[in-house]
Structure of DUF1993 domain-containing protein:
Amino acid sequence: MSDVPPINIYSMTVPVLLNGIKNLTHILDKAEAYAAEKKIDPSVVIEARLALDMHPLRRQIQSVSDTAKGAVARLSGTENPSMPDTETTFAELKERLQKTVDFIKSVDPALFEGAETRDVVLKTPAREINFTGYSYVIGFVLPNLFFHITTAYAILRHNGVDLGKADYLRGG
Amino acid sequence: MSDVPPINIYSMTVPVLLNGIKNLTHILDKAEAYAAEKKIDPSVVIEARLALDMHPLRRQIQSVSDTAKGAVARLSGTENPSMPDTETTFAELKERLQKTVDFIKSVDPALFEGAETRDVVLKTPAREINFTGYSYVIGFVLPNLFFHITTAYAILRHNGVDLGKADYLRGG
């Protein structure tokens, strides 16, 4: 990350998504190795939660993917590729993240031009939220991306996986 | 957040910091109310952790403040105001966040001009990390800010405080 690109809606968003997914993949690698070393059924790790009414690790990973690919699709006007939440193994979760990265990298940065003022409508189960491209990135995409990466980290850390801040904050 | 500012190092950073601190303050208000309602000594909440070798809630709040004021000081070339980590009550922690906001708002946005290419050296106990202003924001400031806000949320949520995603993702 030593070359500084022009600051625009692309450079304030896409490198953050890619770096977050890269670090999350590294964290998953460590969780998988921990389960193997301790002879823990991987599904115990993948289904671990911080509270009974919070989502398990699996869903945190899927939510990172959804946040990242949704951001790129909406900002660039590209179709959002469907990725059903069917993953149940570390290999499948990492493949989901890789497919997300492949999609992000397939989109021409030029398509993001002017996206900061574009209308973005986010449909949640509860309601529709109206954003501009800019308010969508700073008010939803970035906080939501890191929410799910950090929650994945917290689930693993709380359960004893040997992780440290440096695993979360690795450079690009 | 309906008006879209020009996209630059200021607009990609400062509104994110302010919105994050605002939502964290709201989350702390709910934690304080929960402790009062359940007649729990507030210090039990403030010292709660997700793992014995992770920092307690108190320190998560202080780290959000440090990340935010450090970012504004380094990017704008302003002196970073010292805020010793002496807070032990909800009132003091919320005052710390308010002082952080006051500092952020006191800095002239014009001072951020061109900060994306400025050298930023971050001294950690372990080492010095060299960034540009841009790589500092995307590789450290934003992930670190949300790491500590989300960890504060996770500590409280894990311990039964009635919080939901909407408390974390409130608009600006």
Notes: The mean pLDDT of chain A is 96. Strands of chain A lie at 119-123, 128-132. Residues 133-158 of chain A form the longest helix (26 residues).
